Amino acid sequence: MPALHDAAWFAEQIGMSEDWVRRNSKRLPCHKVGRMLRFSEDSVRIFLERTAIDPERLSQTERSRML
């Protein structure tokens, strides 16, 4: 069974605040244990894959903003 971590850990892994994680928990890959949110290392990987941007699909303006 994978280790489960709290919202503060997940927030640190993805570079967001714990408050942001709690506000967006319905859209995040997590486990709910009672009222507590728990995240695995796979949760981080899944989140990063879902939010990755494909530069080929961006407009020229959006690409230039990334640089």
What does this structure look like?
This protein is mainly alpha-helical and 67 residues long. It has one domain (7-66). 48% of the residues lie in helices and 9% in strands. The chain has four helices and two strands, in the order ααββαα. The protein has a two-stranded antiparallel sheet. A hairpin with a 2-residue loop joins strand 1 and strand 2. The longest helix has 11 residues, at 41-51. The chain is elongated. The relative contact order is 0.17. The model has no long low-confidence stretch (mean pLDDT 89).
Largest sheet: 2 strands, antiparallel
Q: Portion of residues in helices?
A: 40-55%
Distance between the termini: 40 Å
- Enumerate the spans where pLDDT stays under 50 for 5 or more consecutive residues: none
Shape summary: elongated
Q: What count of domains describes the coordinates?
A: 1
Number of strands: 2
* Strand percent estimate: 5-15%
Label the structural class. mainly alpha
Topology:
Elements: H1 7-14, H2 18-23, E1 31-33, E2 36-38, H3 41-51, H4 60-66
Antiparallel strand pairs: 1-2
Question: Which descriptors would you attach to this protein?
Answer:
single chain, 67 residues
How is this structure best summarized?
The protein has 67 residues and is mainly alpha-helical. It is built from four helices and two strands, in the order ααββαα.
